[in-house]
Amino acid sequence: MTVDRSAAFLFMIAGYLAGAIVALIAPSDRIARGATAIGAASGSVAGLVVALAVLATGDRFELVRPDMIAVAGGIAIQLDSLGALFLALVCSVGLFAAIYGFTYTADYDGRRSLRFFGLMFNAFLLGMSLVPCAANVFTFLFAWELMAVASYFLVMTEHESSDARAAGLWYAAMAHFGFVLLLPMFLIMAPAAGATAFVDLRAGASALPPAARSTVFALALAAFGSKAGVVPLHVWLPRAHPAAPSHVSALMSGVMIKLGVYGLLRVTADFLGTGPAWWGGLVLAVGSLSALGGVLYALTENDLKRLLAYSSVENVGVIFLGIGAALVLQSYGLPALAMVGFGAALLHTVNHACFKTLLFLAAGNVLHGAHTRNMEQMGGLIKGMPVTAMAFLIGSAAAAALPPLNGFASEWMVFQALLSGAQIPKPEVAIGSPLAVGVLALTSGLAAATFVKAFGISFLAMPRSDAAAAAREPHWSAWTALGAFAAATVVLGLFAPSAIAAMYRIVESVTATPRDVTGGGGIWLLSANGVAAVSPLLIAVLVASVAFVAFASIRARGFDVRVADTWGCGRIRQTARMEYTSSAFAEPLRRIFSELYRPTEDFSVSVHPEARLIIRSITYTTRIVPWIEKALYEPVTRGARAIAASVRRLQAGSVHLYLLYIAAALMAALASAWWFE
Amino acid sequence: MSRAIAILFQTLLAAGLAPLVGGFIRWVKARLNGRRGAPPWQPYYEIQKLLGKEAVVSRTASWIFRATPFVVFSTSLVVASFVPLVAAPAGRFIAGDLFAAVYLLLLGTFFLALAGLDTGSPFGGMGASREMTVVALTEPTVALSIVALALNAGSTSFSQIVSRTLAEPAAALGPGHLLAFAALFIVTLAETGRLPVDNPATHLELTMIHEAMVLEYSGPYLALVEWGASLKLFVFLALAVNLFMPWGIAVSLAPIPLAIGLVTFVVKIGVLATAIAVLETRVAKLRLFRVPELLSASFVLALLAVLSTFLTR
Amino acid sequence: MFSQLVMLGSSGMLLTALIVLWRKHVPAYISAYRLQVWLLAGVTATVGYFTSDWRLFAVAFVLVVLKAIAIPALLRTMLRRFGAQPEVRPYVNTETSLLVAGLLVLFAYVLARPWMAVTDLPTRDALPIAMGLLFVSLFVIVSRRKAITQVIGFLMLENAIALLAAVGTYGVPLLVELGVFLDALMGFLVMQIFVYQIHETFDTIDVEQLTRLRH
What we know:
Chain A is built from 26 helices and 7 strands. Chain A has helices at residues 5-24, 29-57, 81-104, 114-130, 137-155, 162-189, 198-206, 210-228, 237-243, 246-272, 277-299, 304-331, 335-370, 381-384, 386-399, 406-420, 427-430, 432-459, 466-469, 477-494, 496-511, 536-557, 582-592, 594-597, 627-648, 655-675; strands at 61-65, 75-79, 525-526, 533-534, 561-564, 600-607, 615-623. In chain A, 69% of the residues lie in helices and 5% in strands. The longest helix of chain B has 32 residues, at 122-153. Chains in contact: A-B, A-C, B-C.
């Protein structure tokens, strides 16, 4: 079945534009919501068709229109396998987020401008879809900026809360910081003024001297790293993702930060090719910092969505560990082993998009039902929201990298990629590989603890507030999205060998390395030398059958179950105050890592004014402020404010002074024209 | 086909022997304390008794509480099926390698912690919190011990590591191996809830870790949880002896090597279990916030093991 | 066989240094130091046996008499004088100290690689371990508060240098060895006097108190 890919591509763009425009002019909120959903969904389906067509055949899809906006170089679209993978991610998450959003945004009926929301939502999806397709600088930057601006407005949906406003400000600042770094990066790579297509950049990059190549690499890492959310450029992530509506958070966390990974892969693996070892070392260091930092802060969070946001930082760190290992191996002339690293990173990108979307959408259901993001007020949700609880459980187990789900498969591959580092001929460099393995292992252990806390405190035991006790499932249409991603998580886990084989094919097409890695031996995931193997499918079958046999034999023996109160050690009643709280769960680890967290504690006792021995209340507050923000960002913001304050003195307010400025500027312009005559 | 039968036999052996190991350690400790002690096969009686009893489930608990014993039991048993016990045949009819074993056991712990939280009692929450802390801190040590072994053998597959150690017995006495064994031994004590990290015989709220998570379980559920825990101990001991001292293990599936493998395996496990019993008699349980120091020391031992392996390559 | 025994002994010495970072009570430090000196004597004797250099046996004997018997006895009298105050709240906490020690050994490995390439003695594999022991002893001196712990760190530094000499160059001439012993002994006696004086003046041997000398 041949697919007219240009028609599908144009239909995708038309779908998004139609959704945006119709939503803007819709007569009622309900129609606005519907138009948003239909436009976004149809655009996503079309985009998915194009992406799958490219992935299936491996042929590129091109669409070049140099006449449109010719002054900037025209619009050029080219979709190769790598871009198609990311386009498929964008469109699949976008499709289900759109369906989910239809009923989710019903809460905003009458209170907010759903028309503007619909416009921005479709614009966001349009921008994200165009980024992997872009084939020249102008198209790329246009799509990038469209994505950033649209998501800014989406983050500011609940703009009356000061948190959301601060989140929007940080997000806009960091996004433009990245943009400002992208411009010189492209400029350096472009060989001539008019040659800004990616083919030209590829040719130009190979002709650059080593210092320029390293500058390009550093700029790419900083710009795309800040979009992906690596430490220390991650500060916008834990602010912006919780503030946005849940399906937008899912899109941002699941897909938008992956476009940072896409950009980095495009520039380093595709344009620059092989580089010196320190590139990979830098990426490994950044990845380790993000992985550890992300999970450590996720562990102590009580806000459910912020916990998920920090977990995204951690997973991006894991992806960067895979990329870093691949770059180092590549620089030492071991391209077959490097392929394992790139493949593992791509697989983790897909897997994380899958389970993080699942988690955010389930969190959206929780927010809708319990009206709070604070885990300390939740509990017992599994009884009122069983489907959401199951979805969150699957997502948590995948995030904790438990077999046989997809998180385990990709982390196993990243472990194998890091272990291959031991084969590097220089032992001083090879010794970094066990250290990286240790970091990754610590990260995954802490992630398991984090997700036990996230699922256990929110969903299990007794409700800690009335809202949580009254929480119920939302409209059933929300379940389609949950079901789709839960199924995808399980399938990608069980059939991971096929997935990694597909990733290897994509890497092969980008780096042009021959694939002698035995990628995917039937139902087994294989290490680089093909000796170590794990089969998630076999594990799942074995565990299920043993559990079934145990269950059946116990039932056959016959056993009685009696329901009674939890053992109380002499207690009379059981209330929710006796359960473990979210802060209590994380407290041992918080104390162990207190040097890293530097928590501040505040203890105040208020006494009765007349009888000072009678205590009225005791307040204990403990706060963890990420000290990276204090150490790194506060000086920068203070400096910026100081500069702005000194520049403000120019605005004295007097009209005469402004006339003087105009006259002086005019005279300076004329004088300089005469000078340079 | 004989490979499948061998694996099935090995799994049944593990399920059958595991409670005996825990009972044996208890019996040796009792004898060292000057008591008679329950016979080493007492845990079988306990499992049988529990299977016949009524299970009491808490009102606040959900399906996770009822499903967890099956998850714990099945994950431990599946790990026992692909870890080398009596035989370490090469070939791809194996479900996983060392990392898969570690993460599969982590799956069991994950559900056990959730079940602890599910009851809504502070004991369960406390046990879950402490257990996840200990597990998170032992992960890097386990990973580095695996790396130390895998560096020598060239991969993380069990059969490869075993055959490599068999081929080079001198390497087994090198500092790399000894340090990795010490690190893995400390991790075994931590993960299976033995002294000095956790006391398997206590039920005082300040001192429990594993026991606190399973406090609410009764009847057949408790039987499965206890069996799963003893299987976990069995698996860790089997890993310790067979990866570091694999002499006697069967490399083919002929009857005579299998018989020799079985006997040597039982003897080696017995020796290591006795060592654990002696150690438990000598040391006191560590405070919870001293446990990270112990785990940090085991991490450094594993790091030094990796370094020594690098030096002697 | 030779290099394996030397490796075992050197690793043992490094592990005793880790014990000083792990434990909190001074008698444990003294026992660890004594064990370290015995291991050093063992390594020296092994080198002497395999290279048929009988002077190294004399060195080992002097080591045992001086450092494994005399100095620990002196340390114990110091301890009796001051009472056994455990090392609580060092500048770096225990887990971090152990991690830093591991990383220092890794760093020593990276540094020692060029030297290992130059020499072809069978004991060269123990060079990074000796360097690591040196760094860890320095770290002990820097990160602990009690003056007596710092003295023990200095003594371990001595051992590290002696180990380096033994595995790097099969020992140094006997005269140099004796001179170094004398130096160490003198240094130790001077430090002992200082620690006594500190205790007399400030009633504590916590060096944190000494920063008040600033005004």
